[in-house]
Amino acid sequence: GDSVTQMEGPVTLSEEAFLTINCTYTATGYPSLFWYVQYPGEGLQLLLKATKADDKGSNKGFEATYRKETTSFHLEKGSVQVSDSAVYFCALMDSSYKLIFGSGTRLLVRP
Amino acid sequence: GAVVSQHPSWVICKSGTSVKIECRSLDFQATTMFWYRQFPKQSLMLMATSNEGSKATYEQGVEKDKFLINHASLTLSTLTVTSAHPEDSSFYICSATSGNSNQPQHFGDGTRLSIL
Q1: Strand, helix or coil at A33?
Q2: Residue numbers in B near A45 (CB within 8 A)
Q3: A99 vs B34: CB contact, 8 Å cut-off?
Q4: Residue B31: which region, alpha, beta or left (left: phi > 0; alpha: psi -120 to 50)?
């Protein structure tokens, strides 16, 4: 079945460092791909999405490109801030509109 | 952007009681709502999918008599944890979508349930 694999955390970075969180997927067809962010004690917020191959989703300085050839959707940000500290979830939407999540990657940004 | 309101945000109750959690879409019609459970430091586990006006579809291993889901309107779904026990303590999150494959799910802020 469909699945999402993302790098384990925690990822600890200094402020203004470059961020990459790897995400790969296994799916039949070409699912829509998402990154969600979860701050402590809260639900999930949609960060960005891409619906077809080579699409680039971007928001708040974060971006991810839908790579069909490598079945990847890595999340990147050029300069992280302390306020970016959260848990990031990569997800795909299957044909029945269900979201299949990766295990989540905790990001900690130090001042 | 789309807003989903979940209530209550935190509930503590005694073992054996039933607890109802509401999930409302405030500015769009949610043809489909989802209920998730999240254990500490883990990912979200889909419990069930509910479509307005029809019975919920439960994931394997989720007790439908334990977790009652009602989706009576296009803006409201409820999850009732019946005869709750300490092992039901968890973070429950709902999401809603208009159902189009290009529309993402919008999540509520979650409900932390603690059963004493």
Answers
A1: strand
A2: 107
A3: yes
A4: alpha
- Pairing mode of beta strands A56-59, A62-65: antiparallel
Which of B42, B101, B107 lies at the smallest CB-CB distance from A44? B107
**pLDDT tens digits for range A22-58:** 999 999 888 999 999 999 888 889 999 999 999 999 9
Mean pLDDT by 10 residues, chain B (116 residues): 87 96 92 91 90 90 94 92 95 86 81 95
Query: Who among B42, B49, B109 is closest to A43 (CB)?
Result: B109
Are the CB atoms for A64 and A75 separated by under 8 Å? yes
CB contact under 8 A, A32 and B108: no
Could you report how far apart the first and last alpha carbons of chain A are, in Å?
41
Chain A residues within an 8 Å CB radius of B97: 97
